[in-house]
Design goal:
The protein is an alpha/beta fold and 766 residues long. Among the domains are: 1-95; 352-458, no CATH class; 620-760, Rossmann fold. The chain is built from 27 helices and 26 strands. The strands form six sheets. Strands 1, 2, 3, 4, 5, 6 and 7 form a seven-stranded mixed sheet that branches. The chain has a seven-stranded parallel sheet with strand order 22-23-21-24-25-20-26, sandwiched between helices. The chain has a six-stranded parallel sheet with strand order 10-9-15-16-8-17, sandwiched between helices. Strand 12 (352-354) and strand 13 (357-360) form a beta hairpin. Helix 12 runs parallel beside helix 20 and helix 23 (599-608) runs antiparallel to helix 26. The relative contact order is 0.09. The model is unreliable at 50-59 and 314-318 (pLDDT under 50). The chain binds adenosine-5'-triphosphate. The site of adenosine-5'-triphosphate has 24 residues, from helix 4 and helix 6. GO terms for molecular function: 3'-5' DNA helicase activity; ATP binding; DNA binding; hydrolase activity. Residues 209-598 form the UvrD-like helicase ATP-binding domain.
Length: 766
C-alpha cells in the first residue's frame, strides 16, 4: 500500500485521538462535579438519617425522607459510575480508536462515504460519526460483506449499498502499525497476528476479527432457539460474549445484563471470561454452574455434582440404561403425563405438623383438593389448595388472638422472654396497656404459627419424595426391567436418608415437584445461554425451558468433547431440543474452523476423532505436538522435572492436564519436590501463572499457551469415549502440546499417522 495512504490514515487517527482527548478533558471535569455532588448528597443523607429516628411520631416522616435521600444517592452514584465507564472507553479509544474502515456508496450519483469501525462509537463536534460502534447495523457489512453490492438489516428494514473497499488497521498507542485492504471478509493476516499474540489470563474480545460465520451467531435476532455445534476452539464462547454485547446494545431500553443468564461449566471458566464484556463497555451477565443452580433449587439436599459423578464413574459403572433413560426427553414427557393424570387418590398428601400436633391432616388437604374444578390442571388445583390452607391458617391465627391459651402463655413468660417477643426497648412505645397486650398477642401468634406457614409455603402438605418414588416404580413397571427401576427407587430413598440426591435424579425430581405445585418459574430471564451443551442431558434442557419460560435460548457446544457421556449425534440432539422447546424459529449453526490452536495441534486433535469429522485448521504455524514415550511414573517425573523449567521460560502458564482429580493431585505432589506446582480444584476461581495441574473437566472452555496431557497410557485412555476426552485435552493448547504416555501408549495414539507428531523416547541417563 502506498506510503501516503498510510500517512493520510495516520493523520485521521491523530485527528480522532485529538477529539478523544478533548472529550476526556471535558468528561473529567464532569466527573469532578459529579463526585462533589455525590459527596454532598451523601453528607446530607447521613445527617438526615441520624435525625429523629428515635422519636416515634416523626419516624414515618423521616423514613419517607430517608427513602427519597437514598434514591438521590443511588442516582448520583449511578451518574458517577456511567461517567467513569465512559472515561474508561475514551481511554481505550485514545490508544486504539478503531480497527476497520468501509467505503460505501449508496448510488453512483452520490459521493462515497468512509466509515470507521471500533469498539464504541464517537461523535465529532458536528455530531458526525468519527467512529461507528461495531454493533451498529451498518458495521455488519464489515464482517459479512465481500466487495460489491451488499445488504444489511436495520431496525427500519433491509438496506442496500455498494461496498467499494474494506480496510483493516492495527493501531498501537495511537500509531498505525499495520494496515491493508481486503476484499473478502476479515482477512487472515489480522487474525494470524491476533491469535499469535494470545497468552492472557483472561479471555479477550474478538471484535476486530470476528469471522463471518461467527457474526451470524452474534447478530442473530430471528430465532428463539439457536443451537451452535462448533469444534474445539471455533469461537463458541467468544460468540456468546460478543452476542450478549450485541443484544444489550440493540435493546438498551428493554434488556439489562441481569436478564441474561449463562450456564457455564465451572468457576474457573466464569472468571476467565469475566473481562470480555467490561472491555466492550457492558456489564456482565449472570452466570451459574449446573451444580449451583440445582443446589439452590434443592435447598437442604446435597446434590451430587457432575464432577463427583464423573469421578465415581471412573471406579464403578452405574446402570447405564437407567441413566440414559432418566436424561431423555421421553422420560420427562412421561413424567409430565404422570403428573397430569394424578388425582386426589394418587397424590401423596402429607400431614402438616406443629411440633407433634397435626394442624392440617393429609385427609383434610385431600378433601380441599377434591373440591377444586375438575377440569383445572393438577398444578392449578394444587395452588388453589395451598391458598385455601393458608387462608385457613390465617383464620386459626385470628381466632387465637383472643384465646385464653395465648394470654396464659404470654403471662407465663419471664421478662426476658417477653422482651424478646415484642422487641427490646419497645415497651415504652405503646399508648395504652391494651395496645401493648394486643401487640404481644399478635407477635406470639405469628411466631407460634410461623413454622406451619413455612411448611405450607414450601409445599410440605405433599410428600414429593414418595410421589417421585411412586413414579419411578410405575414407570419401571412398563419396562422390561421393572426390578432395576425398583432398585433405582430405593437408591433415591437411601440417598435422601443421607440428605443427598444423585445428579441423575435431581432434574426429574425438580420437574415433578414444580409441575405438581405449579412453581419454579423465573420469568425475568430473557436470554439463556448454555455453553458446553454436550454436558447437559435433554432432561435438563426440558427443565431449563420450564424454569425460564420467557427466555430465548442460545445453546452451544461440541458433541465431540463429551466428557461425561457418550457422544451423541448433533442432529438428534437438535431435533429433540426443537420438540422439547416447541420452538417456532429454530436454527442449527455449525462451526468447523478452529482458531485457538496452531495448525499442527488442530491436525493432531482431529486425528484423534473418528475420520468423518469436519474439523478445519486455521493456518497458524507452530511446531508438532510431542509425544513423550515414558515407561513409568519415575521416568515421566524425570522428564517433566527437566523440561518444565524450559517450557515455563517460554510460556507464562504450563498446564498439566489429567483425566481425574486424584491423578492431578498425585503428579503435582511428586513434582512439587522439584518445582512449584499449583493443583486446581472445583472451588478455585482463578488460574495462576506457572505450572498448574488439573483434571480435564475443570479445564473445560479454558486454553493454555502450553498444555501437557499427562498419563496418556493404554490403561487410562482405553475406550472410544476416552478419545473424546483426549481430544478435549489436546485442544486446550494454543501454541504447544506435549503428551506423556506414562506406560504403554493409549491405542488412539498408536493409530495416529506418525507425521502428525514428534515421537520422543527419553534416554534413561538424563
Ligand atoms: N474471530 C476471532 N478472532 C480472534 N480470535 C478468535 C476468533 N475466534 C476465536 N478466537 C480465539 O480462539 C480461541 C477459542 O475461542 P473460544 O474459547 O471462544 O472457542 P470455543 O469454541 O468456545 O472452544 P472450546 O469448545 O474448545 O471451549 C480464543 O482464544 C478466542 O479468542
Amino acid at each position: 500500500m502506498e506510503a501516503n495512504e498510510q500517512h493520510y490514515e495516520q493523520l485521521r487517527v491523530d485527528k480522532v485521538i485529538a477529539e478523544v482527548k478533548l472529550k476526556q478533558a471535558a468528561m473529567t471535569q464532569q466527573l469532578v462535579h459529579a463526585h462533589q455532588e455525590t459527596r454532598a448528597v451523601e453528607r446530607n443523607y447521613s445527617d438526615n438519617a441520624s435525625v429523629n429516628t428515635f422519636e416515634i411520631d416523626d419516624a414515618s416522616e423521616t423514613n419517607a425522607e430517608i427513602q427519597q435521600q437514598r434514591q438521590l444517592v443511588a442516582r448520583v452514584v449511578e451518574t458517577e459510575t456511567i461517567l467513569k465507564r465512559q472515561l474508561d472507553t475514551l481511554e481505550q479509544l485514545a490508544h486504539n480508536p478503531y480497527f476497520g474502515k468501509i467505503e460505501i456508496q449508496d448510488e453512483p450519483s452520490v459521493p462515497t462515504e468512509q466509515l470507521y469501525i471500533g469498539t464504541s462509537s464517537l461523535q465529532g463536534p458536528d455530531d458526525d460519526f468519527l467512529i461507528y460502534d461495531w454493533r451498529a447495523p451498518i458495521a455488519a457489512i464489515y464482517y459479512n460483506g465481500t466487495l460489491g453490492h451488499v445488504k444489511f438489516s436495520t431496525p427500519s428494514g433491509s438496506q442496500e449499498t455498494e461496498l467499494l473497499n474494506k480496510r483493516q488497521f492495527t493501531i498501537e498507542d495511537g500509531h498505525i502499525t499495520n494496515m491493508f485492504d481486503t476484499n473478502e471478509t476479515v482477512g487472515d493476516e489480522m487474525l494470524q497476528y491476533a491469535l499469535g499474540q494470545q497468552n492472557d489470563e483472561y479471555m479477550q474480545n474478538i471484535v476486530a476479527t470476528i469471522q463471518a460465520e461467527q457474526n451470524d451467531i452474534i447478530r442473530d435476532t430471528q430465532h428463539d432457539l439457536l443451537v451452535v455445534q462448533g469444534v474445539a476452539g471455533s469461537g463458541k464462547t467468544s460468540a456468546i460474549l460478543q452476542r450478549i454485547a450485541f443484544l444489550l446494545y440493540h435493546a438498551r431500553a428493554e434488556l439489562s445484563a441481569d436478564q441474561i443468564l449463562l450456564f457455564s461449566p465451572n468457576k474457573l471458566f466464569s472468571n476467565y471470561i469475566a473481562e470480555v464484556l467490561p472491555s466492550l463497555g457492558e456489564r456482565n451477565m449472570r452466570q451459574v454452574t449446573l451444580t449451583d443452580f440445582l443446589s439452590a433449587r434443592l435447598e437442604g439436599l446435597k446434590v451430587q455434582t457432575l464432577f463427583e459423578r464423573y469421578e465415581a464413574q471412573q471406579i464403578q459403572l452405574p446402570t447405564q440404561a437407567i441413566r440414559t433413560t432418566m436424561g431423555s426427553l421421553s422420560f420427562m414427557q412421561a413424567l409430565a403425563r404422570y403428573v397430569a393424570n394424578l388425582d386426589e387418590q394418587t397424590i401423596e398428601f402429607a400431614d402438616v405438623y406443629l411440633v407433634d400436633e397435626v394442624i392440617f391432616s393429609a385427609y383434610h388437604t385431600q378433601l380441599i383438593y377434591s373440591r377444586q374444578p375438575a377440569n383445572a390442571s393438577v398444578g392449578a388445583k394444587m395452588l388453589a389448595t395451598k391458598n385455601q390452607l393458608i387462608k385457613e391458617l390465617k383464620r386459626k391465627a385470628a381466632h387465637a388472638l383472643e384465646a385464653a391459651w395465648v394470654s396464659d402463655a404470654i403471662n407465663g413468660m419471664s421478662t426476658e422472654e417477653y422482651e424478646q417477643l415484642i422487641g427490646i426497648g419497645k415497651r415504652d412505645e405503646f399508648s395504652s396497656a391494651e395496645a401493648e397486650s394486643e401487640y404481644a398477642a399478635a407477635k406470639f401468634v405469628e411466631r407460634y404459627y410461623q413454622g406451619v406457614y413455612d411448611a405450607l409455603f414450601n409445599d410440605y402438605y405433599l410428600d414429593v419424595y414418595t410421589q417421585f418414588t411412586n413414579f419411578l416404580t410405575e414407570y419401571g413397571a412398563n419396562t422390561k426391567e421393572p426390578e432395576l427401576w425398583e432398585l433405582k427407587a430405593q437408591q433415591f430413598q437411601t440417598a435422601l436418608e443421607y440428605h443427598q440426591i444423585l445428579l441423575d435424579d435431581a432434574t426429574p425430581f425438580m420437574y415433578l415437584r414444580d409441575l405438581l405445585t405449579n412453581s419454579g418459574r423465573n420469568r425475568q430471564i430473557q436470554h439463556l445461554f448454555v455453553d458446553e451443551m454436550q454436558d447437559y442431558t435433554m432432561a435438563q434442557m426440558v427443565y431449563f425451558k420450564h424454569a425460564f419460560p420467557q427466555a430465548q435460548f442460545t445453546i452451544l457446544g461440541d458433541n465431540q468433547q463429551a466428557l461425561f457421556a457418550d457422544v451423541t449425534a448433533v442432529n438428534e440432539f437438535y431435533t429433540n431440543l426443537q420438540t422439547a422447546f416447541a420452538a417456532k424459529h429454530a436454527k442449527l449453526v455449525t462451526l468447523n474452523k478452529s482458531y485457538r490452536s496452531t495448525q499442527e495441534i488442530t491436525a493432531f486433535g482431529k486425528a484423534l476423532l473418528p475420520a468423518d469429522n469436519h474439523i478445519e485448521a486455521f493456518t497458524r504455524k507452530g511446531h508438532l505436538p510431542r509425544v513423550i514415550m515414558t515407561a513409568d511414573e519415575a521416568s515421566s517425573v524425570q522428564y517433566l522435572t527437566l523440561h518444565l523449567p524450559k517450557l515455563l521460560n517460554e510460556y507464562g502458564t504450563v498446564a498439566i492436564l489429567t483425566k481425574t482429580m486424584p491423578a492431578a493431585t498425585r503428579i503435582a505432589q511428586i513434582l512439587r519436590r522439584h518445582l512449584p506446582v499449583t493443583t486446581l480444584t472445583a472451588t478455585d476461581r482463578a488460574v495462576p501463572k506457572g505450572v498448574i495441574a488439573l483434571p480435564i473437566y475443570l479445564a473445560k472452555g479454558l486454553e493454555f499457551d502450553c498444555a501437557i496431557a499427562y498419563d496418556v497410557s493404554a490403561t487410562t485412555y482405553a475406550t472410544a469415549n476416552d478419545a473424546a476426552i483426549l481430544y478435549t485435552v489436546a485442544t486446550r493448547a494454543m501454541h504447544d502440546l506435549l503428551l506423556i504416555t506414562n506406560g504403554q501408549p493409549a491405542p488412539m495414539l498408536t493409530t495416529i499417522e506418525q507425521a502428525l507428531y514428534e515421537k520422543i523416547v527419553p534416554t534413561t541417563e538424563l
